[in-house]
Amino acid sequence: xxxxxxxxxxxxxxxxxxxxxxxxxxxxxxxxxxxxxxxxxxxxxxxxxxxxxxxxxxxxxxxxxxxxxxxxxxxxxxxxxxxxxxxxxxxxxxxxxxxxxxxxxxxxxxxxxxxxxxxxxxxxxxxxxxxxxxxxxxxxxxxxxxxxxxxxxxxxxxxxxxxxxxxxxxxxxxxxxxxxxxxxxxxxxxxxxxxxxxxxxxxxxxxxxxxxxxxxxxxxxxxxxxxxxxxxxxxxxxxxxxxxxxxxxxxxxxxxxxxxxxxxxxxxxxxxxxxxxxxxxxxxxxxxxxxxxxxxxxxxxxxxxxxxxxxxxxxxxxxxxxxxxxxxxxxxxxxxxxxxxxxxxxxxxxxxxxxxxxxxxxxxxxxxxxxxxxxxxxxxxxxxxxxxxxxxxxxxxxxxxxxxxxxxxxxxxxxxxxxxxxxxxxxxxxxxxxxxxxxxxxxxxxxxxxxxxxxxxxxxxxxxxxxxxxxxxxxxxxxxxxxxxxxxxxxxxxxxxxxxxxxxxxxxxxxxxxxxxxxxxxxxxxxxxxxxxxxxxxxxxxxxxxxxxxxxxxxxxxxxxxxxxxxxxxxxxxxxxxxxxxxxxxxxxxxxxxxxxxxxxxxxxxxxxxxxxxxxxxxxxxxxxxxxxxxxxxxxxxxxxxxxxxxxxxxxxxxxxxxxxxxxxxxxxxxxxxxxxxxxxxxxxxxxxxxxxxxxxxxxxxxxxxxxxxxxxxxxxxxxxxxxxxxxxxxxxxxxxxxxxxxxxxxxxxxxxxxxxxxxxxxxxxxxxxxxxxxxxxxxxxxxxxxxxxxxxxxxxxxxxxxxxxxxxxxxxxxxxxxxxxxxxxxxxxxxxxxxxxxxxxxxxxxxxxxxxxxxxxxxxxxxxxxxxxxxxxxxxxxxxxxxxxxxxxxxxxxxxxxxxxxxxxxxxxxxxxxxxxxxxxxxxxxxxxxxxxxxxxxxxxxxxxxxxxxxxxxxxxxxxxxxxxxxxxxxxxxxxxxxxxxxxxxxxxxxxxxxxxxxxxxxxxxxxxxxxxxxxxxxxxxxxxxxxxxxxxxxxxxxxxxxxxxxxxxxxxxxxxxxxxxxxxxxxxxxxxxxxxxxxxxxxxxxxxxxxxxxxxxxxxxxxxxxxxxxxxxxxxxxxxxxxxxxxxxxxxxxxxxxxxxxxxxxxxxxxxxxxxxxxxxxxxxxxxxxxxxxxxxxxxxxxxxxxxxxxxxxxxxxxxxxxxxxxxxxxxxxxxxxxxxxxxxxxxxxxxxxxxxxxxxxxxxxxxxxxxxxxxxxxxxxxxxxxxxxxxxxxxxxxxxxxxxx
Length: 1288
Prior knowledge:
nucleotide-binding; transmembrane helix
């Protein structure tokens, strides 16, 4: 209820800033004068979000989305078959759904608005045909001097009234049409988001995050654009029909010749539409593939940099991009063909009509009234002829998008029958012979599980990698498909995933996760989860913003924040998927004692803990041992040990036989309620900065550009476009417009001769031939112009994308940790789409409009010299309005672009954490957050629509005044001007109304869309990391000994911050094994990052085999080092491509590496073996298996230096032992640096380097360090490691 009240309060506050449209006068409404306040403010200063008017209540996503969802549910029920399908003997399901149609619910939701739009469009079309009729009367009056001249002035006023009414009605139509279209987009995005939150596991595997985001950003946009143009489907034929009727009145049956020419266009348009649809399908697949790969690259950028794989993946992206360019080329040639038909059809129609008219009867004469009335009608005809193929093409493209959306929205949701949450028995979790799998078909992942977990108990789930431990938790959550048995769960749930999901928000917001702040309990949770030392280091404490996926905090910090979120939720059932694996030993024991164990905050809760730490098992109530998806053994720790079965053997082998003694040391080291984090772990401010200092890595909001468009941006585009293509394009369009004016002047001269019938008859064939020749030349120039524009735009698309991709891959890793991935993806999707498709279209249209306006004014001044008197004041008003509008509109569009990024980022973030959101039951809250973000984007769109209407009304009114004065001066001439000149000037003046509006609109759209070019090019100006390859390259086979020397090495993340590493000096011997340890934030991972030059030095140097690493290129350095990183990152593709993305190794070498990692049997069991498809992020492998794949990569890439960064944090003790023995054997001739939380894994190192606050605290053999009784000894004691065990 508090949440609802808060929402209501926010809405009331927004109402105060609601648009004054509702209270405005009638005149203010129809002229949009009520919006002048924003336009004036925008001229004085760059507009900000708070300057804009809020949405009307009915336009909000909170109103639109529920209405549409209601209609969609009805459609789903209507399209479902009420058939009972027996899945297994215990499970029966109802409702096997066919693919539901989106069209019916869209119509039912928005039919009232769509009908209103249609009525306005009919009225606007009707008025557009009145002005040529008035012009005809004026030409007749001028030709025959019939009636009073007051009639002529009356006609001029009537013309003004008609065109003004047409303007007002047309702009009302545009406003309602655009707002209805964006409501449809809003409804679809809301439905997509809700669907994505509830997808079943099998459905989720069909769609990657990139593909789902592409549905929202591209396919929904396509349907919105179709809605905008939908009325043209009937309006264009309606206007064509009206034009033919009026032409029949002028030219009689001859008009049928023109109709025949029109009918010839239909099959051409059908062919073009079919080809466009086909190309759209291909392009959608290409774009999906590119965005999907790019998304994975950006999320796994650290791995790419560590392995020097950027060129390989850059080549993959560029190959997909070339496929996109090929489709764009085909589309461009189709556009050239469409432009040819568009320009030539009105001419061919007039040529055929005029030719048949005077050839069919010797008495037929083309008078000025007939010709210029017909020309005006042909000009009206031009727009629907252009729009009809456009809307046919849009329908073809939208049909593809509609199908993709319907397929996704009709895919299967999570089945609530997977687990019964209404259970009220005495157990927290109860399974009876329950089997589960991840997909609808296939073998079960969990077999016949029977388990009863009492309330308030602590259950440990253990087993080897791939045993099904995480799957068991997913089954409890209801994420897996139940195929038989009963599964029951009681109470609310809190879930900590194995790979922590962190939101891009403050640390406090991540922990509260939508709950109210209880300060006392919140502080208890922070202390229990060992987060207080971290808060000391954060520049804004718990108000510090954490980046996407928690990129700016360490793995241990991420896991502790995730655990704190679960603890604070105060749920009944806690599912903890190995949360202690990513933290140091002493922190892990603190967490167990203070949170999970019998004296922790959760002591009265039911806890299911997946763990590989066998020393914790004696303190649990139940131990569940899993193997191959089955429960192998289950009981208390003592019961399982007494059975002397598999579990007992596992404990004796990997627990060292001293579990009881070591476990007791936990309570000895940490008496109840007396755990303290050591003071020296909390560094003094500005003396030491942790590996990922938050002040260094705070996430940056997307900047909104301000001010006028920079010429440098246009120059960059033109350079990419190619100067030769640019000049050819300008020449083609100049020639095309010059020929068009020539045609009309030729017609004017020809019709002026009509009063001399004999002379006209003698010259008609000659005049007609020249008219036809000019049309033919125009067609050639149009075709040539479209061709050169296509070639130039393709060059620009290729060059700008390549430059951006190259710049992004050369950015330092810190950039990706401080900028949301959604921001970068937005550049590669929306901005590249504008470069590919939109910008050159706006450039072409603006050029055409400019030449049209200049040509029109010159023709009118040539015909009516007095018109010069009107040009000056109207021109001043025109440029004043333009200056005011462009300043405001440009900024509104920029704000709209910036407000779109958070929608995409939030969408992507939710998809990654959907299982966590569902586990906590927060779907409704996240859907409301999505609606809030959509509303912010809608506010900008609404203001943009109104600002465009504000401009259009004023500019079209100026155009209407031009038409009025042209008519007035023609009547004022009192016979001094011949009828042909009157017709020419008025027909041109009528044409200028839309040209003026289009000119400013396209100029503004060019400026606004140039922001996309600016955003695409901005990465070129950001500081890059060092060059990949330098001219002075290290010798082949370097390093050949693996001797690493740090000399007075210092590092700081920023000049204004303290040193993260200080005075680090040590040297390894050849093939020496070095263990690196230290408490959280000691600088362990920073040290290895320095070795790979992920972060550059602030002083000192690192020497490997006699070469200073700062003197070699990054790829020569990174390509000759080896690493197994903390986060096991896999990319979608085959298993083989993940092991060997560069294709360097044979299948035999790959199988040998898999065998050494104990993965050979698993891979051989897969149907496609090495060609097994890895899903996005490696989601279809367990975390442990992913870590083993990373080990296999390292085994293939043998170099003299190997770095292990917490490489075995996610595997069980047995697998850890296997990994360590494999590394000892296979890398015996290498220098190995091992960072580890598990101290036992570095106890056999030759020497151990102990870091403390960015300095070397101790460096000696493990035996000597234990004898020194220093920091290492203390950490070893806390881990239960005895000096005798080391000596053994």
